[in-house]
């Protein structure tokens, strides 16, 4: 049985190396009240494979009427869903995690095609989200309240946990499976209903997850998916029926969302842009440190919150420089579906242009490029791919890598 499973996985990955595109590209659908429906909007955004620049699908700019219909469906579903026993909600999550495991390869291929990260990274993307689904399977214990007797003479206190109502999630491009899975599984298992807005750049994984959630038994209207850009984000912030919002993305977008949603009295959490620094002491383990620096600096093309953009070598960087450059050069830059790829393309042409501007700015400010990969072409058949090879800018005691600087929708 194990042999058959391995063979099936191998076939999936081998066929995934040459993604099949529809002509014309398919339209991404909304999920409203349990139905996957095409938007009536006349405007859309191309979802582009960053390795090849081929159009994968088209994301609609959901109309105000469609958005209102999604909120109305969530509000109606909440009336019954909030009173559904927590054990019943848990069982949906048990089935959901089973289906995610079943379709792990399918999700990974979609993420790699739309976002660009390697298949290994894409599977990690799904797995980190799956861990949250597994956590939601224990909601019966997580939702327990507290009771304290006789806190004062003849006075007992107790707390209970109740669902809020309609909640919403606004997602970035860098983890198209993990971050939606951070959001809606916990929310709906607590008894809330949910409006999900995936990134318009790579919505495919979120749509697959929505299909799996429906297959797992999530009732109509409990999860709804809408698409768009700033207009839909503002609608989410402004709608009186949406009680809470979770956001992951850039500082600029996060501060706007927090201020606008808070002004309407909503509960709001914003996980915003990060810039991580590493400090290497003279007695650090050489091998372990170099491996960690390369993985942290260049994994996922630097498009993640834990990317290490700056490292400070205490005592000077000269003893480290040559070996660090050697290991960085060994990374294989290629489309994420290609076997052995270490570094895929960045998400958009605008992102690549901004990265190159930041690199040039560093050089003009006195940094030395010990390794410059701005003009990399992964393969002859991918001249339009948005690849940026490993880049190292060196000033005194600093090596800087600029790939995780935020663009219009940067990762957290």
UniProtKB/TrEMBL annotation:
Keywords tagged on the record: NAD, Oxidoreductase
Gene3D superfamilies in the record: Aldehyde Dehydrogenase, Chain A, domain 1, Aldehyde Dehydrogenase, Chain A, domain 2
EC number: 1.2.1.27
Record-linked SUPFAM superfamilies: ALDH-like (SSF53720)
Enzyme class (EC, first level): oxidoreductase
PANTHER family: MALONATE-SEMIALDEHYDE DEHYDROGENASE, METHYLMALONATE-SEMIALDEHYDE DEHYDROGENASE [ACYLATING], MITOCHONDRIAL
Entry-linked NCBIfam families: MMSDH (TIGR01722)
Family to which this protein belongs: Belongs to the aldehyde dehydrogenase family.
Protein's UniProt name: methylmalonate-semialdehyde dehydrogenase (CoA acylating)
